[in-house]
Amino acid sequence: MRGAVIHAPGDVRFETVDDAKILKPTDAVIRTAVTCVCGSDLWPYRGAEPTERAHPMGHEYVGFVEEVGSEVTAVKPGQFVVGSFATSDNTCANCRNGFQSSCLNREFMSTCQAEYVRIPNAQGTLVATEEIPGEEFWPGLLAVSDVMGTGWWAADAAEVKPGSTAVVVGDGAVGLCAVIAAREMGAERIIAMSRHESRQKLAREFGATDLVTERGEEGVARIKEMTGGIGADSVLECVGTAQAMQQALRSARPGGNVGFVGVPHGVAVDGQELFFSHVALRGGPAPVRRYLPGLIDRVLTGGIEPGRVFDLTLPLDQVAEGYKAMDERRAIKTLLKP
Ligand SMILES: [Zn+2]
């Protein structure tokens, strides 16, 4: 089979890779329906994370079950399934507490930009739809496997409540999905921090009521100005840089909450500042599995359309161009079709 392999920064190739096969009785193999490039794939692509040896890429997927291991009874061949970028048994203590992305048997997905994918912990990870969904739903369901689940977690971790004010830092796919989540959770005012026209437009359509184009201290000042001088109830940090985190912490009101879901790179939080801010901070890899049934339902009933974050669709064999377009910010997110 063929799949995407990164050889060095800026060098992603579509080439022959090892066939996906059942290695453990808890595995399944799926045939990819659609997959995509994640903002976090750009960290190694841009050399911000080292690539010591060539390795496959991709952690977002929806597909058709091809084969299951002997211990997998929850899904069967032919079904359409959605999973998470972090696999989980869904039975250990952490899973039972709703933190499946900290499953004691967790394995992160890393080979999904390929024609077939091996899914570890298939029993606890995969959720089958009742019927095979129409192709128009595939992008939305694919978004649920990572960016929409992560945006939901940002809003959940930041404790967005009906009638509240939420600020979303970051206008990438996760930030845009976080706007959807804040709206679904009933935030009355949703302030999206974005300076890119196409992303602002989508943020508006997803439910943002206000846009702030300033960044850093100017951005914080603008948020304060808009919130009676005290800051927002909830701030959803969807970037992962030091500047974004600082902006998020300083935009929240005393007693407010910051949900941080951007994978931190070079982020350090000052203890004294956090102490005196009275802001609660919670984040981490999203427990997507906890949200899957609900989010799949919202997509299939048309309640949310997170698939609209894909603004470039390419055949899977043009995956290299998919990375390039995102790196050059020509695309928010690239959908790949085998
Ligand atoms: Zn577990």
Note down, in words, how this protein is organized:
There is one protein chain. The chain is an alpha/beta fold and 338 residues long. It has two domains: 196 residues, Alpha-Beta Complex (Quinone Oxidoreductase, Chain A, domain 1), CATH 3.90.180; 135 residues, Rossmann fold. Helices cover 30% and strands 25% of the residues. It has twelve helices and 18 strands. The strands form four sheets. Strands 3, 5, 6, 9, 10, 17 and 18 form a seven-stranded mixed sheet that branches. β17, α12 and β18 form a beta-alpha-beta unit. α5 crosses α11, α6 packs parallel to α7 and α8 packs parallel to α9. The protein is globular, with a radius of gyration of 19 Å. The model has no long low-confidence stretch (mean pLDDT 97).
The bound ligands are: zinc ion
User: Could you say what the CATH topology of the largest domain is called?
Assistant: Quinone Oxidoreductase, Chain A, domain 1
- Quickly give the CATH architecture of the largest domain: Alpha-Beta Complex
Q: What's the number of helices?
A: 12
What is the mean pLDDT? Answer: 97
How far is the first residue's CA from the last residue's CA?
11 Å
| The CATH C-level class name of the largest domain | Alpha Beta
Query: What order do the helices and strands follow?
Result: EEEHEEEEHEEHEHHEHEHEHEHEHEHEHE
Derived from helix and strand composition plus strand pairing, the structural class reads alpha/beta
